[in-house]
Amino acid sequence: MTIVENLSRPVSDVEREYAAALERDAAQLRRIVDLLQRVDVDDPLLLDVAEKLDALSEHLENPIDTVTETIRNPGWRHDPVSGVENAIAPPIVLEAGPDGTVTAEVEFGLPYQGPNSFVHGGISAMVMDHVLSAATAPQAGVIFTAQLTVRYHRPLPLFVPLTIAARLREREGRKIWATGEIVVDGKVAVSAEGLFIEPRPKAAQ
Q1: What are the pLDDT digits (tens) for 45-84?
Q2: Are 105 and 182 contacting, i.e. CB atoms less than 8 angstroms apart?
Q3: Closest CA to 112 of 80, 75, 141, 72
Q4: Residue 94's Cα: distance from chain center in Å?
Q5: Are the C-beta atoms of residues 159 and 107 closer than 8 Å to each other?
């Protein structure tokens, strides 16, 4: 389902249609990226696919209609972790529990591989930064990462369901601390803690 929300004005049917198209486009590009990791390097189809992708790229560089930027206002729709309009995002769908804990289930495929058959450590760090900041969002709204500490306890396998969780630890003025982990088969594979800063009010800047 396509959802356009968090806008400060009503959303038109045309904007919803464009948003739905962007979401479908990103989903198909995500699928293509994954499939390109699987196809044999000597498959003749690759030549045909390359030509079609070239044509598509040229079309997008010279669009017939320019899409308004207003439908992209909700940043979460195109960020690299949970953005449904971003083809490099898994995407990760976060849920907030009654205790404020943010959780998600995800399964990483070949586009996120580092060591053979395992998730790249940089992907784990990016995901933890995102989820930790989301855990503080109900308290702070807009925040910026000041420090992120990531510990790798064991490799994260590809093609295996993983559970991600994060929670607010404490707050001191504009400083907010959060902790979280990625769990596989009931064991912590990656843990992280982050310090986030809430911007000063504009009047105080």
Answers
A1: 888 888 998 988 888 777 555 555 545 545 677 789 988 8
A2: no
A3: 80
A4: 10
A5: yes
| CA–CA distance, 175 with 162 (Å, rounded to integer) | 29
Angle at 70 between CA 66 and CA 76, to 5 degrees: 115
Q: pTM of the full predicted structure?
A: 0.80
- Structural domain boundaries of the chain? 1-91, 92-204
Query: Is the CB of residue 165 less than 8 Å from the CB of residue 180?
Result: yes
Sign (positive/negative) of CA torsion 133, 138, 139, 141? positive
Q: How far apart are CA 177 and CA 145, in angstroms?
A: 10
How many residues make up the chain in this entry? 205
CATH number of 92-204: 3.10.129.10
Distances (CA, A) of 189 to 49, 134, 156: 37, 20, 6
